[in-house]
Amino acid sequence: MCGRYAASRDPDDLVEEFEVELVPGQLPPPSWNVAPTDEVSAVLVRRPRDGGGPAQRLLRPVRWGLVPSWARDAKGGARLINARAETVAQKPAFRAAFAARRCLLPADGYFEWYATETGGRQPYYISRPDGAPLAMAGLYELWRDPAGGPEAPLVWSATVITTTATDELGHIHDRSPVLLERADWARWLDPGAGADPGLTGLLVPPGPGVLRAWPVDAAVGNVRNNRPELVEPLVHDAATLF
């Protein structure tokens, strides 16, 4: 998966779609060109800090680009926007989060760049044919700047888990975000599941027909561009759609 996606849905719609119980903090504004280190919305389950009461499903802002709790600074987070499904349970940067801090990252769709025969790179937008939101499997972390001491603010950050693209869109890019279906959300988000080996069985490529792609304006390559037109097809010729 390349480092761009669209997330423009109204927070109220996300609350309903993902059955969220609490929204702590101001959520990011709509974006049609989410880039690394941007703030994004994440769905996660947390127990109350005092240990009392049941765990709650939250929708909260996080920074895209995971910062491990042991990191000396937050700069490396920009390189950890994706985690490979094949190694996410073992890699030092992700294994602690995989065991206890799994999340969903809602998206309208995501962008990939296709290498053309002429040597250029054509961006494609990939989403569900019915327009339903994507629930990308992710991990989140909490980091506090060691230079700031115990009073330093917590930085919430997240990464998107990717896997091999094996469907009809695999020729555009060989990786795809892991998309979880509603039936698997509760299991994935459950912080009590620990590093259940069965969780890796959820990290599979999207099935045939789940996604559709179309070419979009190259303007999406500039992070300063952020408007709804970025996800619209360049042409309406069915031959250009996958």
From TrEMBL:
Pfam families: SRAP
SUPFAM superfamilies xrefs: BB1717-like
EC number: 3.4.-.-
Key word Transmembrane helix present: no
Major enzyme class: hydrolase
Keywords: Covalent protein-DNA linkage, DNA damage, DNA-binding, Hydrolase, Lyase, Protease
Gene Ontology MF terms in the entry: lyase activity; peptidase activity; single-stranded DNA binding
InterPro entries found in the cross-reference section: SRAP, SRAP-like
Top-level division of the source organism's lineage: Bacteria
GO biological process: protein-DNA covalent cross-linking repair; proteolysis
Record's signal peptide: none
Entry-linked PANTHER family: ABASIC SITE PROCESSING PROTEIN HMCES, DC12-RELATED
Entry's family note: Belongs to the SOS response-associated peptidase family.
Record's protein name: Abasic site processing protein
